[in-house]
């Protein structure tokens, strides 16, 4: 106990997370080594999180939920972790991502940039660095944003990955981001994704004109119980909706979008041409 670092939970979200982790562990009479066995994470890393020397990851938060048996409660470490990151994310988005990680089907529509789940690290970093230069986020938030994206993408490689249906406006593949080398690698990544058995990728060409049903990016999730969740965002705000009449209308519009978009084979040809 001589080297014990006392934490002020009010000093920062990271300190609050570390203090809660420590108090939950001690309430069970566990040492850090005991918690390490339950979480599958080294005791040194746990010590670092408890003393704020290390930032907890999403994987860490989920492991803590499992270890303390709070996974299906309203007060999870995962939720606390997501709240820590809201400074660099739009309102509503952290909650959406929680559902995204459990979805059996993910439908995306994007305008102007490649959807986050399909971005290469280099492409994502260019976008984050641009936000730093505009003064909209800090360098620390930019790093969190890129790391957070990698955590989301990991869900696509889980043992039973979701069906991923993506329609991108043609502007996504025509708009140069980060220079030719970054863009070429990103477009190659799209071709690789299109070849996956659980993915359908289509381009909505400029020629669609007024037939394009959406003017903003759209995310639609089908959860294991077949319920639907929609998430849409503007420049400054995100909005999450659970299964309602409006969500069903969005799903119908998405089906219309898919019908008007070019086929996956033709979309891959467009990507290769780009």
Structure explained in plain terms:
By secondary structure, the chain is α/β, with parallel strands linked by helices. It has two domains: 72 residues, 434 Repressor (Amino-terminal Domain) (Orthogonal Bundle); 145 residues, Endonuclease, Chain A. Helix content is 49%, strand content 13%. It has twelve helices and six strands. It has a six-stranded mixed sheet, with helices on both faces. The model has no long low-confidence stretch (mean pLDDT 87).
Strand order of the largest sheet: 3-2-1-4-5-6
Give the mean pLDDT.
Answer: 87
Radius of gyration from the CA trace? 21 Å
Low-confidence blocks of residues? none
The number of helical elements comes to 12
Could you state the CATH homologous superfamily of the largest domain?
Answer: Endonuclease Chain A
- What is the distance, rounded to the nearest whole angstrom, between the alpha carbons of the first and last residues? 61 Å
What is the CATH T-level topology of the largest domain? Endonuclease, Chain A
The helix content is 40-55%
| Name given to the CATH architecture of the largest domain | 2-Layer Sandwich
**In CATH, what is the class of the largest domain?**
Alpha Beta
Outline type: elongated
**How many domains, in number, for the residues?**
2
Number of E strands: 6
The helix/strand class is alpha/beta
Order of helices and strands: HHHHHHEHHEHHEEEEHH
Taking the sheet with the most strands, its summary is: 6 strands, mixed
Strand coverage percent: 5-15%
């Amino acid at each position: 106990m001589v080297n014990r670092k006392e934490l002020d939970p009010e000093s920062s979200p990271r300190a609050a997370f570390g203090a809660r982790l420590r108090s939950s562990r001690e309430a069970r009479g566990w040492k850090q080594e005991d918690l390490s066995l339950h979480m599958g994470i080294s005791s040194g890393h746990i010590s670092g999180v408890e003393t704020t020397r290390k930032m907890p990851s999403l994987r860490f938060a989920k492991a803590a939920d499992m270890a303390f048996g709070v996974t299906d409660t309203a007060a999870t470490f995962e939720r606390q972790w997501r709240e820590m990151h809201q400074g660099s994310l739009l309102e509503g988005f952290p909650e959406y991502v929680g559902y995204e990680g459990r979805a059996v089907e993910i439908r995306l529509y994007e305008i102007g940039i490649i959807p986050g789940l399909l971005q290469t690290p280099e492409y994502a970093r260019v976008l984050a660095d641009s936000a730093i230069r505009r003064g909209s986020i800090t360098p620390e938030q930019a790093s969190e944003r890129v790391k957070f994206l990698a955590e989301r993408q990991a869900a696509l490689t889980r043992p039973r990955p979701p069906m991923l249906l993506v329609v991108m406006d043609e502007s996504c593949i025509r708009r140069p981001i980060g220079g030719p080398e970054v863009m070429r690698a990103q477009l190659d990544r799209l071709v690789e994704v299109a070849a996956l058995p659980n993915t359908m990728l289509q381009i909505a060409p400029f020629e669609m004109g007024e037939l394009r049903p959406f003017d903003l990016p759209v995310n639609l999730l089908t959860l294991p119980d077949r319920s639907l969740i929609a998430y849409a965002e503007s420049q400054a705000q995100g909005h999450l909706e659970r299964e309602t009449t409006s969500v069903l209308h969005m799903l119908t519009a998405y089906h219309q979008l898919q019908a008007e978009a070019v086929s996956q084979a033709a979309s891959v040809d467009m990507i290769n041409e780009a």
